[in-house]
Every structure is written in structure tokens, then in C-alpha cells.
Amino acid sequence: KKPIELITDSELVVPRESCCTVLNSAFSSFFTDVASPVFPNTSAYDFFQMDSVVIDWYGICKLIQNLKLSSCPGDDGINPKFLKNTQVYSSIILSKIFSQSLESSLLPDDWRVGKVVPLHKSGSTHCPINYRPISLTSIPCKLLEHVIYSHVVQFLESNSFFSVHQHGFRKN
User: What are phi and psi of 74, to 5 degrees?
Assistant: First the structure.
């Protein structure tokens, strides 16, 4: 694959070694730096109690079956083909890791790292703002995120937290 060659505002071709710095500056300009959020001071009794997330290996196995083989692995190097070829064993092991992570509120270090790759959108390939960042994250971590997301959404749906007028970002 041909390396990216960028041109800065001063029309100078950026050396390959500096492309990462230039792209990082371009990508970070799209985001605002948010200080630590201030959460309202509320009592735990102000809310409905949500059941703990239950991890079962069969559910993880079904999620692995639905993985796209074209997905890129994260920094941990675990790819979907490996997980699919070992889905029963992988789901048993991952379910134990997921349960331990939820109990300890800790994730494996490799799961917290995303590898950012530039993807050309349109326009000149020499212009840094014509790229968007794609973060390649751990596939096992994505599976755990899916389990947690599904649990939270099911809780919110069953307790009528959503307005009947809200249609975006919802199933059906």
C-alpha cells in the first residue's frame, strides 16, 4: 500500500515520519477537550435498581458466530477468524474474563487501547482534514460492550425510560 503523503498549509510535503503528528492534530481538532464531567449529587435510591449483568458462555458463543470475518483486530491481535474457529472454547474463556472484569471493574490493558488508522474520505489525499480516524479496538472488548449495552437498553426499555416520541438510535 502506498504511504500517505500530506501537504500542510505552507504547501510543504510532510515527511512520512511526521504524518502521524499532522493527522493527530487534524483528528483532535474535530473533538472538544472535555474536563471531568460533573455528575449530579443524587441518592442511589432515586433510581430503579438494575440487576447485575449475567454472562453466559452460550450467549457469548452466539455473539462470536455473528462476527464479521472482515473486522480488524485491536492491539491484542485477537481476530474474528480465530474466535469463530474456536468459538466454544473462546466463549467459555471469554465469559470467565468478562465476569471477572465486571466483578473487579477492570479490563485487560490491551482492551483499553485503540489503534487509530486514517481512512480517506474524499478530496485530495494530500490534505489531512480529508481523512477520518478509525479506531481499531479489541474484538473481545466489543463483545463485552455489546453484552453490557444490551443489558442496559433492556433495563431502560422495561422501565419505560424512553419517550414514545424517541425513534432515533432504537430498535424497530
Answer: -85, -160
